[in-house]
Automatic annotation (TrEMBL):
Pfam families: ABC_tran (PF00005). The keyword Acyltransferase does not apply. PANTHER family: ABC TRANSPORTER ATP-BINDING PROTEIN, HEMIN IMPORT ATP-BINDING PROTEIN HMUV. PROSITE patterns: ABC_TRANSPORTER_1, ABC_TRANSPORTER_2. SUPFAM superfamilies: P-loop containing nucleoside triphosphate hydrolases. Residues 1-222 form the ABC transporter domain. SMART domains: AAA (SM00382). It comes from Leucobacter komagatae. Keywords: ATP-binding, Nucleotide-binding. One of its GO terms (molecular function) is ATP hydrolysis activity. This is ABC transporter domain-containing protein.
Length: 239
């Protein structure tokens, strides 16, 4: 619970390694609060989250940083930092053995090696989002929490993030991502959790969760899932 918002029904999730869980639902329904609870950043009250029997809430900050990384929705960071330094915060937080290499690899994977020496405060909104993603990649944790990771990105960079999320899953990471783009959620996630404004939640495969009746109940919009000849799924409003 945060502010006056609370889920009506208790929520319990067990996520296997390799799960890419998309958390969807209307504005203000509690997606960021849930992610913040799991990553332990500023949430008023919450149950518990364990990883391999280890309680995340009571873990020391250093240990938690080795288990969970968070890319928050607001990409705030000191503007005078160079990109390389900021990405290095991730590598240092989880004590990567070769931080310099971890930074280079993360910058490359996020497609921004050319930004390495720029000051964070002088970057565009989308560039900042990619830097925050690189910071998380440099942290290299078994649980990766992403709050709307593509909200500021162009089409090509959205594709990069999709591939990064799928790649993390393929490498046995657990990814939790709040996502507004329901087509992205359909194409990238192995599982979805839909938080409903009434306080209910629904989890399952993307197709189950984003069926037209569920989407209408949550968003009040009539939709259909279309499939392109290449097999890509697009969820679009009916009118
Ligand atoms: N720092 C805060 N203090 C008090 N209440 C907050 C705070 N941040 C968010 N809330 C409230 O908690 C509820 C859930 O907000 P949250 O940010 O988790 O929703 P969300 O589903 O991530 O929304 P969005 O899709 O708009 O990002 C909202 O009613 C919001 O007004």
């Amino acid at each position: 619970m945060r502010g006056n918002a609370a889920l009506r029904d208790p929520l319990s999730l067990t996520l296997e390694p390799g799960t890419v869980l998309g958390i969807v639902g209307p504005n203000g329904v509690g997606k960021s609060s849930l992610l913040g609870a799991i990553a332990q950043s500023g949430v008023a009250s919450f149950g518990s989250a364990t990883f391999g029997g280890e309680e995340l809430v009571s873990a020391r900050a250093r240990r938690r940083a080795a288990l969970v990384s968070l890319m928050a929705q607001d990409h705030g960071a000191p503007g005078e930092l160079r990109v390389r330094e900021l990405v290095g915060v991730g590598a240092l937080a989880s004590r990567r053995p070769d931080p310099s290499r971890a930074i280079d690899a993360a910058l490359m994977r996020a497609g921004i090696p050319h930004l390495a020496d720029r000051r964070y405060g002088a970057l565009s909104g989308g560039e900042r989002q990619l830097v925050q993603l690189a910071r998380v990649l440099a942290q290299d944790t078994p649980i990766v929490v992403l709050d709307e990771p593509t909200s500021a990105l162009d089409l090509a960079h959205q594709r990069t993030v999709e591939q990064i999320m799928s790649g993390l899953g393929a490498r046995g990471r657990i990814v939790l991502a709040a996502i507004h783009d329901l087509s992205l959620a359909l194409n990238t996630c192995t599982h979805l959790l839909l938080l409903d404004p009434g306080g209910a939640s629904h989890s399952g495969t993307p197709h189950e969760v984003l069926g037209p009746d569920r989407v209408f109940a949550a968003y009040g919009v009539r939709t259909t899932i279309h499939t392109t000849p290449q097999g890509r799924r697009i969820l679009a409003a009916d009118d």
